[in-house]
Amino acid sequence: MRRFFTAAATAASLFAAATMPAFAKTELTMYYPIAVGGPLTKVIDDMISGFEKENPDVHVNAVYAGNYDDTRVRALAALKSGQPAQLSVLFSIDAYDLVEQDLIVPFEDVVKTDDEKAWLAGFYPALMANSRVEGKTWGIPFQRSTIVMFYNKDMFREAGLDPEKPPRTWDEMVAAGKKLTKDGRYGLMVPGTGYAYWMFQCFAIQNGKELMSKDGATVYFDDPAVIEALSFWRSLTTDAKISPAGLVEWGTLRQAFVQGQTAMMWHTTGNLTAVKKEAKFDFGVAELPAHKQPGSPTGGGNFYLFKNASEAERAASLKLIRYMTAPERAADWSIATGYVGVSPAAYETEKLKAYGKDFPQALVARDQLKVAIAEFSTWETARVREALNNAVQAALTGTKSPAEALKAAQATADQLLKSYKH
Question: What is the mean pLDDT of residues 159-173?
Fold first, then answer.
């Protein structure tokens, strides 16, 4: 009889084991922007595969959602409708809005161990400038950039210019642009659509003035130095005649450059690898020219942790973010795209040291971090930014003077920001 019960118990346990569900994995949904040239989807997919191999208890669903604005809309819509979303790469400048909507958690609430704290402190300070709001860290740099100047060395040689000495000042840029401009080709193109505010930050900081305060509650659009900066950008068309009239399109400028329609262009370093693959000529990359001082805003996307995640999901998300920002992966990402390796440790990896030696253009954006500033971001970011974009475009197209356009944008911003001033 005892043997019967033992056999029955064994059969029952085997049946239970056969019918029990497999060990439950932690499921993560990550929204990701595919917005800049290059085969980025495969790079991200490979990273996720590597992570899942090292962490078999976690499964990551990557949702590729278009540009940054598309990604934000889709991720926030998923959150509001109760769909799972634990993390996303969104604009670094979205931090104020995400904090105000109470959608994200600061990393100080998730980072616990000394190792995790050391990781949090290991990023370039210039890239962390957009991550901190009211003393806490809300974003982790990943898809980050500065604006650099691409230039056609062959055209420089043809114009009698030294291809190893790109313009270092506004005056030198204008002088070179005049020598480079001829029928069917401009000396310089700077995009006025897509991210006009971002490009305008370059001119403003080079003329000695940041556009916003550190607390995101005040803007300086009507400052004389800012008006002067927009007037200079406009003068590249009206006076120097080295840039086309109207607005240069962000989305097609890279093609214009590789097709020889412009000798110089200002654009994100996130296009570097695509230019390297597409250009049929010798090209250089330089830090942006200075006027009163050198400078460029940083740009691109940060990782954010959504508030509605469980503790297990949050811990798994932190693991994934740490994996994707580790020096080896940051080096791979920089090589594959042209984006900045987000930590000094990335540039100490053998692969990025070798790549930088063979292709020094890849180090320019990193070197420019020493004079980089935070990308334009305030409370009520979207509407304040829209006012600035409209002002810049009105001035560039000649529908308003730079002073008139910027004073109108200042009035709009002051109204939007008045409740945030301490």
Answer: 98
Q: Which two tokens stand for residue 334?
A: 């920089």
Helix (H) or strand (E) holding 136, with range, is: strand 136-137
HSE-up of residue 185 (Cα within 13 Å, Cβ side): 19
Q: Using the 8-state DSSP alphabet, how is residue 306 labeled?
A: B
Domain 145-298+378-420 has what CATH class?
alpha beta
User: DSSP 3-state assignment of 390?
Assistant: helix
Question: Which three-class secondary structure state does DSSP give residue 182?
Answer: strand
pTM over 0.85: yes
pLDDT in tens, 9-66: 444 444 444 444 455 789 999 999 975 444 778 889 999 999 999 999 999 999 998 8
Tokens of 162: 């030294």
Tokens for 351? 């692969």
> 88 is written with which tokens?
């996303």
Residue 180: C-alpha distances to residues 150, 256, 261 (Å) = 14, 15, 11
Yes or no: say if 298 and 146 are a contact pair by the CB < 8 Å rule.
Answer: yes
pLDDT band at 1 (very low <50, low <70, confident <90, very high): very low
CATH 3.40.190.10 fits 26-144+299-373, yes or no: yes
Q: Is the pLDDT reported for residue 75 higher than 60?
A: yes
| pLDDT tens digits, 144-163 | 999 999 999 999 999 999 99
For the packed helices 196-206 and 224-238, what is the interaxial angle rounded to 10 degrees? Answer: 110
> Whole-angstrom Cα distance, residue 338 to residue 272?
5
List the helix and strand counts (H, then E) for the chain.
Answer: 18, 11
The count of other CB atoms within 10 Å of the CB of residue 421 is: 11
Lookup result for tokens 């799972």: 84
- Residue extents of the structural domains in the chain: 26-144+299-373, 145-298+378-420
| Strand ranges (E), 260-317 | 262-268, 283-286, 296-305
How far is it between the farthest Cα atoms of the chain? 105
- Same topology, domains 26-144+299-373 and 145-298+378-420? Answer is yes
Sign, CA dihedral 310-313-317-319, equals: positive
Stretch among 80-84, 173-177, 273-277, 320-324 having the lowest mean pLDDT: 80-84
Q: What is the pLDDT of residue 35?
A: 53
Give first-to-last CA distance, the chain, whole Å. Answer: 82
Q: What would the two tokens of residue 60 be?
A: 């990551």
